[in-house]
Structures are given as structure tokens and as C-alpha cells.
Design brief:
This protein is mainly β and 155 residues long. The protein contains one helix and nine strands. Helix content is 11%, strand content 57%.
Length: 155
């Protein structure tokens, strides 16, 4: 029986993977709030990632972050997002809008973890615009308790 269940799960996972979609994800984040204890001035971040969207409201992404602070810094980035299964509403009756929550990490000298929340707007069948907010948590005071707002493009 265990073999049957394992085979069924693997078959389902494989078919879900085959039905997904890879797409580039480019985003810009502006730091709008940082604590007074921050050890540097982090201004903004540009993220370039590759995203894989599963057919059932889940996506994972990974790539690089380019961080503008007192000096320029790069980091690896990875995360996952959970979308609403159906659009919440449509803009002009044509563009679907989903909400999402996610978790991710920037791998710097000290890892900076973040929760994120946002909206994904379907411009057309291939292009999506994300509007989001993140709050970073890290042992490094250059990034800890920094809140950002951002906009992203998936095509």
C-alpha cells in the first residue's frame, strides 16, 4: 500500500511540475522605513530572479539582489509565494488581480529573512506586475527591521 501511495504522489507531483511555467522576475524595492539603530544607509534593491509558478497557487524563485547602501553589495536570493487560487477582482473587467504572501531570504554575510505580501496584476497572458511590501529580519543591523515597498515585472 505504501508503494501505491508513493507512486500516486510522485505521479501527481510530476504532472504538476510539468504543467508549471518558468518566467523571469525583475523587481525594484525602495527602503521606506529603517530603525534608528541601522549601521548603514540602505536605500534600495534591484532583484533579478527566475520564477517557477506551479499550477496550484504556488511559486518559487531564486536569483540575485543588487543592494544600494553606503556601498554596493550583491546577494543571492530565494523565496516562495502563495497566491489566491482565483483572482480577487478584475481591473477594467480584463486584468485579474491576485493577492499573495511569501517568505524569502537574501544570503549576505548574515542571512536576511523576510515575509512579503502583495498584489499580482495580470496585464496580459504573459506579463504580470507585482506590487509588494517586505520587512527584513537579520542579525546584521544594516538590514534588520528594514521595510521596503516594491514593484516587479514578470514576463
Amino acid at each position: 500500500m505504501k508503494k501505491f501511495v508513493t507512486a500516486a504522489l510522485l505521479t501527481g507531483a510530476t504532472s504538476a511540475f510539468a504543467a508549471g511555467q518558468f518566467s523571469p522576475l525583475i523587481s525594484y524595492e525602495l527602503v521606506y522605513s529603517e530603525p534608528s539603530t541601522a549601521t548603514s544607509n540602505t536605500a534600495s534593491m534591484i532583484n533579478t530572479s527566475m520564477q517557477y509558478t506551479f499550477p496550484r497557487s504556488l511559486s518559487v524563485y531564486g536569483g540575485f539582489s543588487f543592494i544600494l547602501r553606503d556601498s554596493f553589495e550583491t546577494a543571492a536570493q530565494a523565496g516562495a509565494r502563495f497566491y489566491t487560487p482565483n483572482p480577487l477582482f478584475y481591473v477594467n473587467g480584463k486584468m485579474p488581480v491576485w493577492t499573495y504572501v511569501g517568505l524569502g531570504a537574501n544570503f549576505l554575510d548574515n542571512v536576511a529573512f523576510y515575509p512579503e505580501a502583495g498584489f499580482r496584476i495580470g496585464i496580459n497572458d504573459d506579463t504580470r506586475v507585482d506590487v509588494f511590501m517586505k520587512v527584513y529580519n537579520s542579525n546584521d543591523t544594516a538590514y534588520d527591521k528594514h521595510a521596503t515597498v516594491g514593484i516587479g515585472l514578470t514576463f
